[in-house]
Amino acid sequence: MLVSELSEAELLNCFVPDLPAGQAQLIGPGDDCALIAAPDARFVTSTDMLVENLDFRRDWSTGFEVGQRLAAQNLADCAAMGAQPTSLLVCLGVPRDLEVQWVKDFTAGISLRCREAGVGLAGGDLSGAPVIVASATITGNLDGAEPVLRSGASAGDIIALAGTLGRSAAGLSLCEAGYIQTEDLYTLPESLRAIAADSLRIFKAAEPPLTAGVEARQAGASAMLDVSDGLLRDLERICQASETSARLDSVLLKHYIEPLTKLAAWLNADVRQWVLAGGEDHGMLATFPLGVPLPKRFHRIGECVEDGKTELYLDKMPAPAVLGWDHFRKETRE
Of all residues in the chain, what percent carry a pLDDT higher than 70? Predict the structure, then answer.
């Protein structure tokens, strides 16, 4: 059945009754606005979107995976401020010839991630569009604490990451090489199948370590964001906001490089490009003052080295001139 065969009310009735309601959701879908509790009279909020054929392809990803992906990237933004997510609002534009099942799968994917995070899917909007366009707006609670901004890092701070690097980029390379579905991976050497399956899954629907954001805030993180556009690009954002320079340690980065090395060789890809510039793993990239014990899931990858400048180094050399994803242009650092 196509969406054009249903009225808007009938389409909404296919999924709205099954949407999750979080503890902070006082009034959900059905009125002109949802009502969300804000216990400390403040909330963090962010929005993100996905556009078909720019951010995802229907021949690569299911509606369920796209829904999970949209939820994950919004939940990660909230976590990167050190906040506990509370509610999500979703807008969806779809073409008339889209299968109703795709919409139901999409909302099921979002609902799964929201339930896992204890978040209510509080409402949104539904419209027609030439291609699928989906956006979500998240709110989060800081429980009276201060948010962790990008601007708090300083020389001497430790740079650490919770989550994965390079896996989503590896998954993209797999899809581009024709390894799109799990069954396609059986043509790979057996030794590569597990890491390939993991990378493909993360590319289609990232699995950010959401609770690590609050853990980092509670541990005393000085700056934080989630890695959505690549390690170098996002670390540079911290450096620019904090007016400090950063040095990554190639030995410490082996933790992320070595598991992907053989897969990259098989695909004739650059594993360092995956790890340094590949985005959408949505791991938590944070800085911590020297002497602060790192939370369990954080792995040290470098340090902030000099205030007043915004340079990036890999060991003692300037970092490679790759900056990760940009929607409107490709850049290299001079």
Answer: 96
